[in-house]
C-alpha cells in the first residue's frame, strides 16, 4: 500500500437521515475550515444525499460503491428512509459487505486514508482500520448519555427480572445520575438480541469494537453533557473524546434533508404574519408516521388549544378530514418535509412538539425553543429525559403507540406558549446562548473541533 503523504480522512456514514446529516456537517467543517482531505463513502442510491455537501465543500471527494448483495433485503433498499424498524438490523449487517471493496480502494489509491471516521452502527470499520494500520474514530449522531447507556448494555447485558413485563425497570448505576428506564424504552437492537444468532452477535461485536476504537466524536457540547463526556473519558481510559456540536449550521441550506409540499417561502411568509413567540412547531422526524387515532388526538388538541401551529405531517399520517380548513389562518399543515432549522429559528416560533430525535433536540436548543416531548423509539427516551431534566422542555407523551389525551395536549400546548411556560422558554433561550457560544471561535466545541483536526493532521504525517 502507498504511504500517506498527508492527512486524508475516510468518512463512512450510516444511511439514515438522522445519522448522515450531522456527519456530513462534520465533513464540511473538516474540509472547509481545516483544509483536510476527506473522502466520503456511500452506496449508489445514497450518492444524491451528498449533493448539498459537495456544493458547499467542493474539495470533498465522493467514493461511490455498489450496495453489497444481500438477499434478505428487498432489491434497491439502501437506506432507512420510509422503512420499518424490521429492516434496520439486516441493513446494518449488509453494510459490512463494503469492507473488502473499501480495503481494495484504500490499497490502490495514490493517496490512501490516514484515519477513518465512521458511524457508531458501523463497528466493522474498526477491522478495516486495523487492516490498513490507521486509527478509527467513532462518530456518534446521538448524545454522550445515550452512548454511555449503549456501552453499559452491550458490556453488562442486563436482562429483565420479569421477562413478561415490558415496564420492568433497567437501571444504570455506573452512569452519572444513575438513570433508569423501562425495558420497552431500551435500544431496539438490544431488546431484539438473541444469543448466538448471527446478526445479533454481529451488532453486539460492533458496539464492543466501538468501545475499543481510537477516539469518539460527539455531536453535542460541553455545557449540555459535560458530566457524560467526562464519564466517557474516564471509562474509555483516554482523552480522545471530542464534543463538536451542535453541528447543524443555523444559517445552513433551507433544503437540508428534503423538499416540502409547501414552498419554503410560503412557510416563512406565513410565519412572518404571526406575532413573536406565538407558534408551536409539531414535527416527529423523517421516520415516524402517526396512526389515525394519534393524528386525531393531536389534531383535536391543537384545535382546542387555540394556539398557532405548523404541523409537519410526514409520510402517510392521516390528518383528519376538515381539520386544515377549520384551522386555516391559525394553523399550517405541511405534508412531508419542512425546513425545520429555518422554522425553529423564526422569531414567531416559541415551542416545539418533538419526538426528541437528537438532531431535532440540538436544532431546538440552538434556536432557543422550548420543547414538548413525545419520544417514540431509539435514543429518544433518553434525549427527552435530558431535555426535561435540563428544564428546557415538558413531558407530554411517550411511546410509538401512545395516544395522548386531546384535552391534556391542548392544555400543555396553551401553557407552553402562555405565561406559565415563560420560565421554560427563558431557560431554552439561555441554553441556546451557551450552545452558540460553544461553536464560536474560542468556544468549547470550536476548541474540540480544532483539537480533532490537529490530531487527524498528526496521524497523517509520515
Question: Which key phrases capture this entry?
Answer:
single chain; alpha/beta; Rossmann fold; 7-stranded parallel sheet; 42% helix; UDP-glycosyltransferase 89B2; UDP-glucosyltransferase activity; transferase; UDP_glucos_trans
Structure commentary:
Pfam families: UDPGT. This is UDP-glycosyltransferase 89B2. InterPro entries: UDP_glucos_trans. Keywords: Transferase. It comes from Elaeis guineensis var. tenera. The mean pLDDT is 93. It is globular and about 65 Å long. The chain folds into two domains: 8-249 and 441-459, Rossmann fold; 264-437, Glycogen Phosphorylase B (Rossmann fold). Helices cover 42% and strands 15% of the residues. It has a seven-stranded parallel sheet with strand order 3-2-1-4-5-8-9, with helices on both faces. The chain has a six-stranded parallel sheet with strand order 12-11-10-13-14-15, sandwiched between helices. It has a two-stranded antiparallel ribbon with strand order 6-7. It has 462 residues and is of the alpha/beta class.
Indicate the topology.
Elements: E1 8-12, H1 17-32, E2 37-43, H2 51-56, E3 61-65, H3 88-94, H4 99-108, E4 115-119, H5 125-132, E5 136-140, H6 144-156, E6 169-171, E7 180-182, H7 188-191, H8 198-211, E8 215-218, H9 222-236, E9 241-243, H10 264-272, E10 279-283, H11 292-305, E11 308-313, H12 323-327, E12 331-335, H13 340-344, E13 349-354, H14 358-367, E14 370-373, H15 380-389, E15 393-395, H16 406-417, H17 422-439, H18 444-459
Parallel strand pairs: 1-2, 1-4, 2-3, 4-5, 5-8, 8-9, 10-11, 10-13, 11-12, 13-14, 14-15
Antiparallel strand pairs: 6-7
Amino acid at each position: 500500500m502507498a504511504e500517506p503523504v498527508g492527512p486524508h480522512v475516510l468518512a463512512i456514514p450510516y444511511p439514515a437521515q438522522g445519522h448522515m446529516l450531522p456527519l456530513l456537517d462534520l465533513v464540511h467543517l473538516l474540509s472547509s475550515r481545516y483544509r483536510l482531505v476527506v473522502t466520503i463513502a456511500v452506496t449508489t442510491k445514497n450518492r444524491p444525499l451528498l449533493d448539498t455537501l459537495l456544493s458547499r465543500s467542493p474539495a470533498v471527494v465522493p467514493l461511490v460503491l455498489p450496495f453489497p448483495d444481500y438477499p434478505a433485503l428487498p432489491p434497491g433498499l439502501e437506506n432507512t428512509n420510509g422503512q420499518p424498524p424490521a429492516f434496520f438490523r439486516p441493513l446494518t449487517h449488509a453494510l459490512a459487505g463494503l469492507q473488502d471493496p473499501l480495503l481494495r480502494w484504500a490499497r490502490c489509491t495514490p493517496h490512501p486514508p490516514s484515519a477513518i471516521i465512521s458511524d457508531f452502527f458501523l463497528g466493522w470499520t474498526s477491522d478495516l482500520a486495523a487492516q490498513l494500520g490507521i486509527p478509527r474514530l467513532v462518530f456518534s449522531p446521538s448524545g454522550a448519555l445515550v452512548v454511555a447507556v449503549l456501552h453499559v448494555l452491550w458490556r453488562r447485558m442486563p436482562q429483565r427480572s420479569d421477562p413478561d413485563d415490558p415496564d420492568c425497570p433497567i437501571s444504570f448505576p455506573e452512569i452519572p445520575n444513575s438513570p433508569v428506564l423501562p425495558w420497552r424504552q431500551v435500544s431496539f437492537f438490544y431488546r431484539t438480541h438473541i444469543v448466538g444468532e448471527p446478526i445479533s452477535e454481529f451488532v453486539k461485536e460492533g458496539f464492543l469494537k466501538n468501545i475499543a476504537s481510537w477516539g469518539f466524536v460527539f455531536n453535542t457540547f460541553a455545557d449540555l453533557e459535560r458530566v457524560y463526556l467526562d464519564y466517557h473519558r474516564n471509562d474509555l481510559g483516554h482523552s480522545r473524546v471530542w464534543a463538536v456540536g451542535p453541528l447543524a449550521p443555523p444559517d445552513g441550506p433551507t433544503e437540508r434533508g428534503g423538499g416540502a409540499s409547501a414552498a419554503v417561502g410560503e412557510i416563512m411568509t406565513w410565519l412572518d404574519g404571526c406575532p413573536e413567540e406565538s407558534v408551536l412547531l409539531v414535527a416527529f422526524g423523517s421516520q415516524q408516521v402517526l396512526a389515525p387515532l394519534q393524528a386525531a388526538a393531536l389534531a383535536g388538541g391543537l384545535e382546542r388549544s387555540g394556539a398557532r401551529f405548523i404541523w409537519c405531517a410526514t409520510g402517510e399520517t392521516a390528518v383528519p378530514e376538515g381539520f386544515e380548513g377549520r384551522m386555516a389562518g391559525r394553523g399550517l399543515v405541511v405534508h412531508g418535509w419542512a425546513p425545520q432549522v429555518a422554522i425553529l429559528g423564526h422569531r414567531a416560533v416559541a415551542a416545539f412538539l418533538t419526538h426528541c430525535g437528537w438532531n431535532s433536540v440540538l436544532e431546538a436548543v440552538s434556536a432557543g425553543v422550548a420543547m414538548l416531548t413525545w419520544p417514540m423509539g431509539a435514543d429518544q427516551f433518553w434525549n427527552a429525559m435530558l431535555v426535561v431534566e435540563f428544564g428546557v422542555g415538558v413531558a407530554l407523551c411517550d411511546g410509538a403507540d401512545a395516544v395522548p389525551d386531546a384535552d391534556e395536549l391542548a392544555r400543555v400546548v396553551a401553557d407552553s406558549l402562555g405565561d406559565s411556560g415563560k420560565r421554560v422558554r427563558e431557560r431554552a433561550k439561555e441554553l441556546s446562548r451557551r450552545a452558540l457560544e460553544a461553536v464560536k471561535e474560542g468556544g468549547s466545541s470550536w476548541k474540540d473541533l480544532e483539537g480533532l483536526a490537529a490530531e487527524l493532521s498528526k496521524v497523517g504525517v509520515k
